[in-house]
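Please decode residue identities from the backbone states below.
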């Protein structure tokens, strides 16, 4: 199996050495946001190049090994739904469930190699992006531009080209739009655009300000016939005693079983640990879900609990990592090596302290990460089956046309709840649902004072339900020809805690792709594209944008998209508003009144329904 995977990979990489030197859209990073942007823009008819530093697509969901979908919205749409439908189909053919994680079968997961394969399949075909693997953008070319608006004249910059470091050397590529979908926001400073790192703003980045922990995950599996000797290290790595103390806080032989009541009582037993990040197993017979009775049957899981780095180790006596991790690649390399070693310590702990017949999954990955190059030989065989990159929770964030804060996110999430009515964002381009979740660096001193953020808002501003993401946080305030995706959007640290997960990054990435394509085909800058055009493109691609749910306009209804826009732009009042989790009634088949037709700016016609009227009004927007 591993030899077959290697041959396929060689073929894919060999077939992706494109010689072109100009593209409409160049996307830095083929992670969850970047690949979605590429698929959307390509399907809209523009030429796209993905520049991906690893050998696989999917970023945090695949290359970083976080293949458990942190999706609390209960709603899949657009490219995210297409991706997950393909995942489900892949496992259904094999008689397996994907409801294997978070102690609840409603939560979905997949093996990283499967996710990467499916994303690769989605980027093939007639309308498909070109991809450069093992490559990165190292420089960005910009033109100085002057904008005249009435009597106001402003100077700015416009991205025009990039220099790409590939395995075969440097390439200079021109582009109309550049999207930064990297895991660190590494392209933002290359453009000259202003950005935030931690709670500071460029060019005055405070390198000692703190950001969230990273995690070098691992995919591990059970070897019931005995662990292969090559996957069982004889000696621990230096620092193991301290790591053992850390892991004893999380999982022990006689730890507790999770009972469904939060907070989780620590330490837990190994079976409970495995059910937290359980994955389906393509290489065993039978199936399991994450129902409690199935936890002992789980044969594959992800190590992403207790191994946050620095976690309890701290960094210079502080929780979290310094912003220097984003700014200084030498320090970054050191931190990532230590994060990798911390997880390798768990492999030794699991085998020797817990006595479990588990090790890294030798059918996942098969290339030694750069961070493992100087490990002892016996550990290198294990490390080559580790993800190639760590899970990075917090990146640089552009200073955009607007900055999305926890207060705005919270207010929006109250839409149709507790009699709050319609608080929907007129410029919504994606829907998500996740807490304002920071893995350390969550004190008042870590927040952005200029945005009014406070540590307590992690609780008091926690989303009450689904929330929307506005378009203008994808657009830098000071740079044209440039769009942010992935975790690089214009938002506060707390808002980023809710927008950093795979489902929402796929959907904001899809919006970035639509925006880029419309800018190219309209021969305008991204900031000049009307929001309604972006929204229509997304609705045409199966994306849900409105928080309103109407019983008489279910998904698939011929006026579903028009009614979504009617809710976003408040074109007509529904007959009955949604309330909490109860759907409302739009009155789609009722006759439109003369006054409603006038409000919609259309000509009244006898017998016209509200659905027809809204559809007509939307078509003219």
């Amino acid at each position: 199996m591993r030899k077959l995977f290697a041959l396929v990979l060689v073929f894919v990489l060999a077939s992706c050495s494109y010689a072109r030197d100009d593209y409409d859209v160049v996307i830095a990073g083929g992670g969850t946001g970047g690949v979605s942007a590429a698929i959307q823009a390509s399907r809209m008819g523009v030429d796209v190049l993905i520049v991906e530093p690893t050998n696989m697509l999917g970023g945090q969901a695949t290359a970083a090994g976080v293949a458990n979908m942190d999706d609390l919205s209960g709603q899949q749409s657009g490219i995210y739904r297409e991706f997950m439908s393909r995942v489900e189909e892949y496992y259904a053919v094999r008689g397996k469930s994907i409801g294997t994680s978070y102690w609840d079968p409603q939560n979905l997961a997949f093996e990283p190699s499967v996710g990467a394969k499916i994303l690769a399949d989605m980027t093939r075909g007639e309308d498909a992006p070109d991809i450069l693997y093992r490559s990165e953008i190292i420089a960005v070319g910009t033109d100085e531009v002057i904008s005249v608006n009435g009597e106001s004249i402003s100077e700015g910059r416009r991205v025009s080209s990039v220099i790409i470091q590939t395995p075969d050397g440097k390439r200079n590529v021109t582009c109309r739009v550049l999207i930064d979908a990297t895991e660190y926001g590494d392209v933002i400073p290359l453009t000259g655009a202003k950005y935030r790192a931690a709670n500071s703003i460029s060019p005055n980045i405070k390198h000692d300000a703190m950001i969230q922990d990273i995690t070098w995950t691992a995919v591990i599996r059970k070897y019931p016939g005995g662990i292969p000797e090559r996957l069982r290290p004889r000696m621990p790595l230096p620092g193991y005693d301290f790591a053992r103390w850390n892991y004893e806080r999380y999982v022990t032989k006689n730890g507790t079983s999770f009972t469904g009541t939060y907070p989780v009582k620590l330490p837990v037993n190994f079976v409970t640990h495995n059910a937290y990040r359980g994955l389906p197993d393509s290489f065993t017979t039978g199936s399991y879900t994450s129902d409690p009775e199935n936890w002992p049957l789980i044969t594959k899981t992800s190590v992403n609990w207790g191994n946050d780095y620095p976690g309890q180790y701290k960094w210079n006596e502080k929780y979290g990592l310094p912003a220097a991790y984003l700014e200084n690649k030498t320090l970054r390399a050191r931190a990532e090596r230590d994060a990798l070693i911390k997880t390798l310590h768990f492999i030794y702990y699991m085998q020797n302290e817990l006595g479990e017949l588990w090790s890294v999954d030798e059918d996942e990955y098969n290339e030694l990460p750069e961070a493992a190059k100087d490990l002892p030989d016996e550990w290198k065989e294990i490390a080559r089956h580790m993800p190639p990159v760590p899970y990075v929770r917090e990146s640089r964030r552009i200073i955009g046309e607007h900055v999305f804060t926890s207060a705005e996110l919270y207010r929006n999430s109250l839409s149709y709840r507790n009699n709050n009515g319609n608080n929907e964002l007129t410029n919504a381009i994606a829907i998500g649902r996740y807490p304002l979740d920071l893995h350390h660096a969550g004190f008042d001193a870590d927040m952005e004072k200029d945005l009014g953020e406070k540590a307590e808002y992690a609780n008091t501003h926690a989303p009450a339900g689904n929330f929307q993401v506005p378009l203008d946080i994808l657009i830098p305030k000071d740079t044209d020809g440039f769009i942010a995706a992935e975790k690089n959007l214009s938002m506060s640290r707390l808002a980023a805690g809710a927008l950093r997960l795979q489902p929402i990054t796929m959907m904001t990435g899809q919006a970035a792709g639509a925006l880029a394509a419309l800018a190219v085909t309209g021969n305008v800058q991204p900031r000049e594209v009307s929001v309604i055009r972006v929204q229509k493109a997304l609705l045409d691609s199966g994306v849900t944008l409105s928080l309103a749910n109407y019983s008489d306009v279910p998904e698939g209804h011929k006026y579903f998209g028009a009614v979504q826009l009617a809710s976003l732009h408040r074109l007509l009042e529904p007959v009955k508003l949604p309330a909490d989790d109860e759907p409302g009634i739009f009155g789609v088949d009722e006759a439109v009144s003369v006054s409603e037709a006038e409000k919609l700016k259309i000509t009244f016609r006898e017998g016209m329904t509200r659905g027809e009227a809204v559809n007509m009004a939307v078509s003219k927007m």
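Observation: Residues 5 and 11 are 10 Å apart (CA to CA).
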